[in-house]
Amino acid sequence: MPVGLSEPEALLPIAGVRWGIAAAGIKYADRNDLALMEIAPGAATAAVYTRNAFCAAPVTLARQHGEAAATRYLLINSGNANAGTGEPGMMAALDSCAALADVVGCKTEEVLPFSTGVIGELMSVEKIRNALPQAYADLSAGNWLKAARAIMTTDILAKGVSRQIEIGGKTATISGIAKGSGMIRPDMATMLAYVATDADVEPALLQRLLQQAVDYSFNSITVDGDTSTNDACVLVASGQAGIAFASEADAGYGEFAAAVIEVLQFLAQAIIRDGEGATKFITIDVSGGSSKAECRQVAYTVAHSPLVKTALFASDPNWGRILAAVGRAGVEGLGVDKVSIHLGDVRIVCDGGRDASYTEAAGQAVMDEEEITIRIDLGRGSARAQIWTTDLSYDYVKINAEYRS
Amino acid sequence: MPVGLSEPEALLPIAGVRWGIAAAGIKYADRNDLALMEIAPGAATAAVYTRNAFCAAPVTLARQHGEAAATRYLLINSGNANAGTGEPGMMAALDSCAALADVVGCKTEEVLPFSTGVIGELMSVEKIRNALPQAYADLSAGNWLKAARAIMTTDILAKGVSRQIEIGGKTATISGIAKGSGMIRPDMATMLAYVATDADVEPALLQRLLQQAVDYSFNSITVDGDTSTNDACVLVASGQAGIAFASEADAGYGEFAAAVIEVLQFLAQAIIRDGEGATKFITIDVSGGSSKAECRQVAYTVAHSPLVKTALFASDPNWGRILAAVGRAGVEGLGVDKVSIHLGDVRIVCDGGRDASYTEAAGQAVMDEEEITIRIDLGRGSARAQIWTTDLSYDYVKINAEYRS
């Protein structure tokens, strides 16, 4: 079961944004699997996508459409990723956008398509086309949670959060949803995340803000190291709150940006808390590096080590595995006698070996918790990075061995 | 159970090399855990060690001793890795060598120490010292298989092989043993491997041969991506067969080198066949790369993907996961429409998508096998690399979640 996560109670509507949901029967029976976001004219939309070379057809098309026109609709389906599908997959993505454009009366390039689910199977445009009228009729500002549920695949819980911030006597609202549980090591954005605000943000600034927020959220999590073919994160600024930002220097922008980052971080951590088979929520905090990149490299090496992950699952303070992972992370000229490692507040390693004061009982007490922080100080600089990950359980194997059956 | 591997039936003695075995009670009760290799004067010894920055105390000491003197004894224990043990660990390794030097009457630096087992716990020199007389009294040319069993940790089967080759009417014999099952992604050599021949090989040539053989064997396997702190591989040439090699150009050297590589490859593959929880033996063959390094990078990315590994465990031809792993392997400028992927002889991907002639039944037939080859052609050059790995099963998690309990 998810670690320290529950269903969102309520998500705040964003003026200028409506969601319409439908059941298209793409893979799952008896559940919604199609979500349509309508964006009012005049809004700005920023997006980041997976860096996987085999990016899915909808990712390629969404990139093209985003550059060609202002975005009016996001069309999202779960159950089929439309990835590894070659030219027929591109046609399916394009035909889906065209079908929606017909229904709503916009241009095809004003639609961004998104897909998540099984890779390598052709997606039925027919099923999507048939469900579009239902989704269109359903458009409502209050459908955020319903949308969060429609885009789930192996997720156990829907993921969403809202924040409000007062700026100059006015209120800006930010709401976001995300899905993702496995094949999670976003290298640009996580599986799928949609965030909107009613603030007015100049498009280039919005893109910079999204990139920054993604770096501190979706690009700092990993379940299994598998960067997906379909990762995407979209940030919409509808501009209907009467608050406008044209540059980083504008009054209130710092607070606003912090709130956006907070929303993305919440969603990214929610994906980890609901990671496939997760029984632990792990923070890996690497400091004392000569660069942030080096800190991230160490953090990811520890986070991806199956031996560290299985020890975390077993609540076993087998810190030697952490030490071995740090040692193989490829940090040039690492002085092992400068490295220290803490489990929670318990120092386990210093001077290249076990801390003399360390006791197994102290390590065990930390490992018994559901939420664990591993702190690693490389002792060679002032850079720092933090990432979040899960343990590796029987259920991870079960979920992924049985996914298609 | 190990995949396509059985206990070695007999291992051929090597003139000039004897093994002595004892039960020191380091961690395991009622089994041998100490192995002593005696090397006759005049032999050449080459060794390669882990590149893990946190290398174990015995690795540091073995490197120093190997440079300081001709090696006369290898002292190997299982049950405790003497890694992450700082200065006390160095003292323990040194004291063990000194204790053996006392018993056999050699210099301390003529002894190379090796340890494998739990990381981060201090090793008892007392237990080793007490068992040395028993090991010394046991020295015999016929003890290769007994040694293979004594160095095991989570291995299910002992691993060893012998080869003979005729050169100029004389016979050179090569015997080797290895241990290893988890924390396997050697970045120099695997956990522990000991190979000896009765040929006479000039020391610098012997070291080059070992490096070459390791590249094609222990540096081409992975179970879990975790490079150990204790990896070591030793190659001894006793020179007692009347066959001598001073350079690569010598008559018969090519055949001899091929036989040595074959022995190391057998041992490396045996480690994979006995990989923790392994139910499949997987060959990943990447061709068409612009460099060997790039081919290895792709092969290891596929081999380390938990999603690919769980699909292999489930015998699920979920090739989309292979494609996603290739796509995120970080190959600069990869043309995805040039990539093809075969499962065994079945082509599943070409032109960036599923081969039109591919059927799930054909993929399933390959996946149902115990031994599976995944062939990936990057379509951008003529370099090639091959590595071997396992699937990821419930038992892998079980073994590693319960290792210390």
Q: How would you describe this structure to a colleague?
A:
Chain A is an alpha/beta fold. Chain A has 2 domains: 17-273, L-amino peptidase D-ALA esterase/amidase (4-Layer Sandwich), CATH 3.60.70.12; 281-401, Ubiquitin-like (UB roll). Chain A is 32% helix and 26% strand. Chain A has 11 helices and 18 strands. The first copy, chain A, has helices at 57-68, 86-104, 125-137, 144-150, 203-215, 253-273, 292-304, 306-313, 319-327, 360-367, 394-401; strands at residues 17-22, 34-39, 44-49, 73-80, 111-118, 159-167, 170-179, 192-197, 200-201, 221-222, 232-237, 244-245, 281-289, 340-343, 346-350, 353-354, 371-377, 383-390. A 7-stranded mixed beta sheet of chain A has the order 10-18-13-17-14-15-16. A 5-stranded mixed beta sheet of chain A has the order 3-11-8-7-6, sandwiched between helices. In chain A, strands 1-2-4-5 form a 4-stranded mixed beta sheet, sandwiched between helices. In chain A, strand 14 (340-343) and strand 15 (346-350) form a beta hairpin. Chain A is globular and about 70 Å long. The two termini of chain A are 21 Å apart. Mean pLDDT of chain A is 88; it is low at 186-190. At the A-B interface, helix 2, helix 8, helix 9, strand 16 and helix 11 of A face helix 2, helix 8, helix 9, strand 16 and helix 11 of B.
